[in-house]
Specification:
Its EC number is 2.7.13.3. It is an enzyme of class 2 (transferase). There is one protein chain. The protein is of the alpha+beta class and 463 residues long. The chain folds into 3 domains: 143 residues; 69 residues, Helix Hairpins (Orthogonal Bundle); 146 residues, 2-Layer Sandwich (Heat Shock Protein 90), CATH 3.30.565. Helix content is 51%, strand content 18%. Strands 3-2-1-6-5-4 form a 6-stranded antiparallel beta sheet. The chain has a 5-stranded mixed beta sheet with strand order 8-10-11-13-12, with helices on one face. α1 runs antiparallel to α2 and α4 packs parallel to α8. It is rod-shaped. The protein binds adenosine-5'-diphosphate and magnesium ion.
Length: 463
């Protein structure tokens, strides 16, 4: 069970106060009790002294001057109470029943209960004729004093604890509130998408909570400094990433023109009418195909760099079905020995997006199903509509993606080791582009693969 700091502080200080108050109250009560008994014992002794001075018959000693009303007197002879009485007024006494314990009273003061008259403090003294005169004074007034004291102590303690509880709660709440604000700031920062790599502005702890003279303020100040560092680090990272992206985009862009020239000149030389031997013809063919590969690579790099830079895509409403049909007819033209199957929905598969990029997604998936599988492989492309999503599924019954490649298959330059892939000459950027385009459309791509069943599913939000 977790208890809040506030509750812990309040409860422990109140408990402490309650304990201390109880100890003080008990000690006071005991001391006063002692003091009052002592005083009463003195008074009883004086009363006994007066009685001895007038030790007449029976209980007449009660009638000596100075004896207080309610004074108890008894004459004990041979271990038995002869007569016991209480002084009720000037010159008048009233007989009272006395318990046998009165007969055992000696010079030491003792407390004896006289039934309806309550407790008495008594002391005994022996007369010359061998009787014992027992004199006593009531304890009631002292007991009333003590009871009142205990009641007052309890009331004061309770009131003190209640007051302390309120004051403590207020003070602690005030002290803890800035901590809550620090936590809120930290939580807000922790909810930011820090992994996106973009430059961001982080929330800060309010200036009021960064006073270095308080502990909370020190934490707040440290938190703000840390957030500042994090922000700077992010800005620096973002800056260098942007520069790198820009560099790749520029480099790719710059490479397009010379590459186009190379291809053009190779073609010109091939068809140029000048006779050349088979070796030259072969070399020219290689130059053309390698330059073609490089062009694709450069185009892919440029596209990825632009997608990374968050270059806005075209956003128009379009139907995915014709895109898929076009891509399949291209694929069929390139690889007629594969079996190309397609299944389309009755309604248009409408999404909002960039036509050329989405066309490229389908083309890349179909190109993979073509280049990484042997002739005779069946490739089934399905467009399906869900209430809020449109998905394109490309499945083939080829050899599948190697299990060790599968987790990184959407990574850049991730390629299978098989000689087929090498021969097919892919750059390893095809699926990276598929994934980046899907994400730029707020969609996603998933893959599952085992020998005989490889499935790529791209799903996009429906219009
Ligand atoms: N349909 C598929 N069947 C088998 N392997 C595949 C399939 N699609 C992709 N792969 C594997 O995934 C790798 C990455 O694909 P891709 O990013 O398009 O790069 P590339 O096609 O240029 O090699 C490929 O090299 C291949 O090994
Ligand atoms: Mg590919």
């Amino acid at each position: 069970m977790t208890i809040s700091l506030e509750t812990k502080l309040v409860v422990s200080s109140i408990a402490l106060l309650a304990i201390v108050s109880a100890v003080i109250a008990t000690a006071t009560t005991l001391l006063i009790d002692d003091f009052l008994i002592d005083r009463l014992d003195h008074q009883v002794s004086s009363a006994a002294h007066r009685s001895m001075g007038a030790a007449g018959p029976e209980v007449s000693f009660l009638l000596v001057p100075g004896q207080a009303v309610e004074t108890f007197g008894a004459r004990v002879r041979q271990g038995a109470v002869r007569r016991a009485a209480v002084l009720t007024g000037v010159g008048s006494v009233q007989d009272v029943p006395a318990p046998p314990s009165v007969a055992r009273v000696t010079g030491e003061p003792v407390t004896i209960n006289l039934g309806p008259m309550g407790d008495y403090r008594m002391v005994g003294a022996r007369t010359r004729d061998g009787d014992v005169l027992v004199t006593g004074l009531p304890l009631t007034s002292m007991q009333t004093t003590l009871t009142r004291l205990v009641v007052v102590e309890a009331a004061v303690t309770l009131a003190g604890v209640a007051l302390m509880a309120i004051a403590c709660t207020l003070v602690v709440r005030r002290a803890v509130r800035p901590l809550g604000r620090l936590a809120a700031t930290a939580t807000r920062v922790s909810e930011l998408p820090l992994a996106s790599g973009d430059a961001i502005r982080l929330a800060r702890v309010p200036a009021a909570d960064t006073d270095a003279r308080t502990e909370v303020g020190q934490v707040g100040g440290a938190l703000n400094r840390m957030l500042g560092h994090v922000e700077t680090a992010f800005a620096v990272r973002h800056e260098s990433e942007t520069r790198l992206r820009q560099f790749i985009a520029d480099a790719s862009h710059e490479l397009r023109t010379p590459l186009a020239s190379i291809v053009g000149y190779a073609e010109l030389t091939e068809r140029g009418g000048e006779p050349h031997g088979p070796q030259t013809a072969h070399a020219l063919g290689r130059i053309r195909s390698e330059a073609g590969r490089m062009t694709t690579l450069v185009e892919d790099l440029l596209l990825l760099a632009r997608l990374d830079a968050g270059r806005p895509l075209e956003r128009v409403e379009l139907d995915l079905s014709p895109i898929v049909v076009n891509a399949i007819s291209d694929a069929y033209a390139t690889a007629p020995r594969h079996r190309w199957l397609v299944s389309l929905p009755d309604q248009p598969a409408l999404v909002v997006g960039d036509h050329d990029r989405l066309h490229q997604v389908v083309t890349n998936l179909l190109a993979n199903a073509r280049t990484h599988t042997p002739p005779g492989t069946t490739v089934t492309t399905t467009v399906s509509l869900d209430p809020d999503r449109v998905s394109v599924r490309v499945a083939d019954d080829g050899p599948g993606i190697p299990p060790e490649l599968l987790p990184h298959v959407f990574g850049r330059f991730a390629r299978g080791d098989g000689s087929r892939s090498r021969l097919a000459g892919g750059s390893g950027l095809g699926l990276a582009i598929v994934s980046a385009v899907a994400e730029a459309h707020e969609g996603r791509v998933e893959v599952s693969s085992e020998p005989g069943n490889t499935v790529f599913t791209v799903s996009l939000p429906a219009r």
